[in-house]
Each structure stands twice: as C-alpha cells, then as structure tokens.
Amino acid sequence: MPRATPPPGSFLPLTPVVFEILLSLAAGPRHGYSIMQEVETRSRGAVRLRAGSLYRALARLLDDAIVEELDGRPAADLDDERRRYYRLTRLGQRVAAAESRRLVRQIGVARSRRLLRQEDEG
Fold first, then answer.
1. Is residue 68 one of the residues assigned to a domain?
2. Which of 1, 20, 27, 48 has the most crowded CB, counting CB atoms within 10 A?
C-alpha cells in the first residue's frame, strides 16, 4: 500500500536553508553547486550555503519526497558526469508555496504593527 502524502503544512515552518534550496529548485533542475551559486547570487551574497549543510538538507528533502534526483542530466550540462541533479516534486512545489504564503502572512503582521515599512523591503 502506498504511503499517504503528508499535507504541505506538516513540513512548516521550513528552515532558511531548506527554503533557499526550494526557491532555487523552483526555477528548474539544478546540481548542488549550482544551487549554492544561485542562492548566493539571488541574495546578493547575504546567504551562502555550505556544501555540508546543502547536502544534509537535500538528503532530508529526498527522504521526505519534497525533492527528487533526476536519472539523467540536462543536455546543456555535458561537462561533469558526476553531477547529480535535483528538482522539486509536486509535493515540494506545494510545500514551497505553503511556506511562501506563511511568510507573506507574517510580513502582513509586521506591517500592521509598524515593524516594516515599504521602503525596508527593497
């Protein structure tokens, strides 16, 4: 009998590292080093994932079926056959969306309590 899929909310809140990985994979399949580079670039250097943290988090995400490893490699990447590529599963997409909604609600509360102004967000 197949294992029941847990609801996305059961994984929340996500750690910052996990959410960064899911945000990176939301753009499409990536290998580990590419995930680290994308996160650092997107955050303008404010977030730097370390290899150990990244691969521990990916192992948990694989176990939870939030991320899956691709069998092959994208045709555009022919330079290193050792690279492993990962992508979000359908559950992973739902978890990332649920975390995004949770964070938007928190930002709304911060605004309502005058902890955050519009100009603080840019």
1. yes
2. 20
